[in-house]
Every structure is written in structure tokens, then in C-alpha cells.
């Protein structure tokens, strides 16, 4: 994670937005009063989805169990 001051971010915001989107690495912004993190919208949406799924009772365990199943057991066409 890159660490920049708010002034550095202000001077380079468009480049940093491109960097966050292309590298999928967060950028820590250090301020005088507070700190913040710059992440791409795509990464933010993924974080939100993960938090939602982990809030569903039993979902985490179900995902872990599903990851141990061999792919050959399943059809390429889910039938949806």
C-alpha cells in the first residue's frame, strides 16, 4: 500500500485514481486530522460484496466447503 500526504494526493489525484484501478492496491492518504484510503470503485464494490456475503449466517463455511469440491463434479452448464 502506497502512503502519501493529502497534498501529494491533491496534486496527483487523476494519476492515483488510474493507479488504484490498474494495480488494485489501496493508497493510504495521511492527513493532519485523519487518514483515508483510496481504492478503485471496482475494489470497493468487491469489498462490499464480501462483507455482505460474510454477514449471511453459514455463508463463510459454505464457501469454504465449496472450495474443496473438485470442479469435475459439476456440469459446465448450471442450467440457469
From TrEMBL:
It comes from the Bacteria. Transmembrane segments: none annotated. InterPro entries: Antitoxin_Phd/YefM, YefM-like_sf. Antitoxin component of a type II toxin-antitoxin (TA) system. Belongs to the phD/YefM antitoxin family. This is Antitoxin.
Amino acid at each position: 500500500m502506497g502512503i502519501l500526504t493529502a497534498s501529494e494526493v491533491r496534486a496527483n489525484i487523476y494519476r492515483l485514481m488510474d493507479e488504484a484501478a490498474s494495480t488494485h492496491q489501496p493508497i493510504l492518504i495521511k492527513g493532519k486530522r485523519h487518514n483515508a484510503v483510496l481504492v478503485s470503485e471496482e475494489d470497493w464494490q468487491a469489498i462490499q460484496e464480501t462483507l455482505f456475503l460474510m454477514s449471511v449466517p453459514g455463508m463463510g463455511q459454505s464457501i469454504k466447503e465449496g472450495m474443496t469440491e473438485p470442479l469435475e463434479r459439476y456440469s459446465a452448464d448450471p442450467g440457469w
